[in-house]
Every structure is written in structure tokens, then in C-alpha cells.
Specification:
Elements lengths: L8 H20 L10 H24 L9 E2 L14 E7 L6 E6 L5 E7 L22 E6 L10 E6 L8 E2 L7 E7 L9 E6 L11 H21 L2 H6 L21 H6 L2 E8 L4 E8 L5 E6 L14 E2 L11 E7 L8 E3 L5 E8 L8 E7 L16 H19 L2
Parallel strand pairs: 6-7, 14-15
Antiparallel strand pairs: 1-2, 2-8, 3-6, 3-9, 4-5, 4-8, 10-16, 11-14, 11-17, 12-13, 12-16
Helix pairs in contact: 1-3, 2-3
Length: 411
């Protein structure tokens, strides 16, 4: 048999060629102005695209049937999305708001867990003319439950029902427009363990049907929109629309009055702020924040706002892993090479990138200050009691990170 012998051959070929054309066009965005024109970051842009190409059809096809739901990890050490932050894990499951689902799992020891029912995805951000963020994002959180609210037995085992008639205990309501569960878990200490989860629809029986030509064609269209959207939208979408992101031209400073902290952020279980930075080889950037209660995370990202290499490099800090100076100030140092400071944030030698702050347990607004200093005079600009590490101690820190992150992802 050859092309044309099957009744859907022409439709499938057109859909595939359209997907390939969209993938090709998505690659053109690697050269956008927001991505610095140096070989390291140009390559990283294509890596961002190819990593997401690897999950495009998982999202578009393999996990799409809401009668046979699966929990899909958005982000791993080898797959990043714009806006993800190291020390989080991100998972989703497509659902139908007219069905009832059961999640079963065992609680880990991560400091924070949030399971959110996401509603319809509007074409524009409510109250604006701005397009919503690319699929599978841009949908509106409807309700959520935090890990501390989930009732479990002595071993940490639990069931959580989603949709259907109200139930006592672990239950999340849905609406006819509910379309996915968004599951985020955040880790503080390196010894914390992840929550295991699986999901099933209560009204499903029999084997999952194989995809039809029509479903495959639809998946090609969705996947094409996904790879195009992520390369087009990041990072400009956040610059234009997010309350927590500063003007990208206001380099090296957190916005003094722009924090993502409204009702929808509360349902997401967090508040956020964001800084864009640029560092020359002979510069270092000191970021200062008054130590405050709660669970906060600082995470480094590249030009497309995907998290940096959190498996191998010190690109994130949380309270349990940060040294606070004697004056009660958290000081982080961005530098291209190891300055011997405990709280070093590795730039991966990227010329430009971003630093994101998340606060997960309180709605308190942090106060930030930054100072750009000569790299060879960095120590002069830090307190005398700044925690320092030698190469052997840094290697111990590296191994702690490496082993803990692998445990979070079961790899």
C-alpha cells in the first residue's frame, strides 16, 4: 500500500506537514530580541524548544482522554517550561467537569502541596485585551486544596475525590467547564520526599480506545499550537501581563510595587515577584531581602524564563538551605563563577536571565534591594560574617542537591 490508499491519507499528510511547518517557525523565535545573541543562549533556546517537543504529543494525545486520565509531569531536570521555578514539581491531569475522579496517593514530606481545579481557558485574560498564555495554560483556577488540608491515615495514604456529588473530607468540586487538575509541590530541605499520586475516572470501564485519524489530526494541530505558543509567548507575555514581573529594561531590580498577589494567586497558593538581570563577566549582583516567616523560594531562569539546571547547579535557595547574615538579611550573590559565598546563584555563564521569588505560606510582601558590584571586589560589599564555603564544601552541597532532586523525580 502507498499514500492515497487509506481514506484519511490526504488529511493526515496535510496535518503533519502543517505541524512540521509550525515547528520550523517556532524555531525562528530562538533568534528573538529577548534572547541574547550569544552561542550559549541561542543553543539554550533550541533546547527549550526540543525539550517541549518531547512532551507536546503526551499533552495533545497520550494523556488527553479524560475517561482514562493520567498525571503528566510538565517539568523535569531535562524538560523546562517558561515560568517554572526550581524546587517545585509541576504535574497536570486533563479532566472533564461532568465526571467524577479519584486521586489516590501517599503524602510525602515536601513543605507545600497544592492541587487546583482549573476552569475554562478564555481567549483573552479577563478584564484585558491580552491573549491568554499558550495552551495548556491560561485557564482560570476554580478551587484548590493544600496538602495540610488533605486527610490521610497514619502512613500518609489518602483518597481525594474530584467532581460529582459533595463528599465529606477530601473532595474538590468541579464545574461543567473544569478541564484539568494542576498539581504543584514545593520542597525546602534536601531530605524532603515527594507525594505519590495516581488518578482514575470512576465511570470508566474497559480498555482505552486507540486514537482515530481524526484524533491524531487534532493532536497535530494542538501540538503545533503548543510549540509555537511557548516560543512566541515567553518571556514577553509575562513582561506585558504579569503583576509580578518588572519592565525587562529595568535590569537588576525587583519591582517595588508589582507583586502577583490577588484572589487567583491565593487559589494558586502563592505570591510572586520577578527580576530581570544582565551581568558582564567582571560583575556580580547582590540581592538582599529581610528574612521573614513563611516558605519562600528564589529560582534562576534563562531568557525564556525556564528554570536553570537545578539538578547540577546552585540556581535556587529556600529557607532551609540559605544562610542568613547576622543583621537578619538574606543575601544572595549572582556571579558567573563561584565566589566562595554560601548563597551563590550560578548564572550558568548566561549573560542575561531572570530571578523569581515565590512565597507560599503567607501573603507578606518581601522588601528587596540589589547592588551591582565589581566581581573582584565582591567580598568588600558583603558583611564580615557572610557564610563562605571552600571547594570541598561546595562539592558536598552539589551532591546534596543532585541526590535530592533525583529523588524528587524518581530518576
Amino acid at each position: 500500500m502507498a499514500f492515497g490508499d487509506g481514506p484519511d491519507d490526504a488529511l493526515l499528510r496535510v496535518a503533519w506537514e502543517q505541524f512540521c511547518d509550525r515547528l520550523k517557525n517556532a524555531g525562528h523565535s530562538a533568534f528573538k530580541d529577548a534572547n541574547p545573541a550569544n552561542p550559549l543562549q541561542r543553543a539554550d533556546a533550541f533546547r527549550f524548544l526540543t525539550q517541549n517537543l518531547g512532551q507536546a504529543f503526551d499533552l495533545a494525545l497520550e494523556t488527553r482522554d479524560t475517561a482514562f486520565p493520567q498525571i503528566h509531569p510538565f517539568v523535569t531536570p531535562t524538560r523546562k517550561l517558561g515560568g517554572d521555578v526550581a524546587d517545585f514539581t509541576y504535574r497536570q491531569a486533563w479532566i472533564d467537569g461532568n465526571r467524577t475522579y479519584r486521586l489516590t496517593g501517599r503524602k510525602g514530606t515536601a513543605r507545600w502541596l497544592n492541587i487546583t481545579v482549573q476552569g475554562p481557558r478564555p481567549e483573552t485574560i479577563p478584564g484585558t485585551d491580552w491573549p491568554s498564555l499558550h495552551e495548556p495554560f491560561g485557564d482560570i483556577p476554580e478551587c484548590n486544596i493544600l496538602g495540610a488540608q488533605i486527610e490521610a491515615d497514619a502512613r500518609g495514604d489518602f483518597e481525594l475525590f474530584v467532581g460529582g456529588e459533595p463528599r465529606p473530607g477530601n473532595w474538590l468540586p468541579t464545574t461543567p467547564g473544569s478541564r484539568k487538575l494542576f498539581i504543584r509541590e514545593a520542597f525546602d530541605g534536601w531530605d524532603e520526599t515527594p507525594t505519590s499520586l495516581t488518578i482514575e475516572a470512576l465511570d470508566t470501564a474497559g480498555a482505552k480506545p486507540l486514537p482515530t485519524s481524526a484524533e491524531m489530526i487534532e493532536a497535530m494541530d494542538w501540538a503545533g499550537a503548543f510549540v509555537t505558543g511557548l516560543m512566541h509567548d515567553w518571556p514577553e507575555h509575562s513582561w506585558l501581563t504579569s503583576r509580578g514581573v518588572c519592565d525587562p529594561h529595568a535590569l537588576g531590580a525587583f519591582p517595588p510595587d508589582r507583586t502577583a498577589n490577588d484572589a487567583s494567586d491565593a487559589k494558586r497558593g502563592r505570591m510572586a515577584a520577578h527580576m530581570v538581570w544582565r551581568l558582564e563577566p567582571d560583575e556580580a549582583l547582590i540581592v538582599e531581602m529581610d528574612a521573614h516567616p513563611g516558605f519562600w523560594i528564589f529560582g534562576m531562569g534563562g531568557a525564556f524564563m525556564g528554570s536553570m539546571d537545578f539538578l547540577h547547579r546552585p540556581v535556587s535557595y529556600t529557607p532551609a538551605r540559605t544562610r542568613v547574615d547576622g543583621d537578619g538579611v538574606v543575601r544572595l550573590v549572582l556571579a558567573h563563577d563561584d565566589p566562595g559565598v554560601h548563597n551563590w546563584l550560578d548564572t550558568q555563564r548566561f549573560r542575561e536571565g531572570n530571578l523569581t521569588y515565590r512565597n507560599l505560606l503567607t501573603q507578606d510582601t518581601a522588601r528587596f534591594q540589589t547592588r551591582l558590584v565589581p566581581r573582584n571586589r565582591l567580598i568588600e560589599h558583603l558583611p564580615a560574617d557572610t557564610a563562605l564555603v571552600d571547594p570541598a564544601e561546595r562539592e558536598v552541597m552539589r551532591l546534596e542537591r543532585y541526590r535530592a532532586v533525583k529523588r524528587r523525580y524518581g530518576i
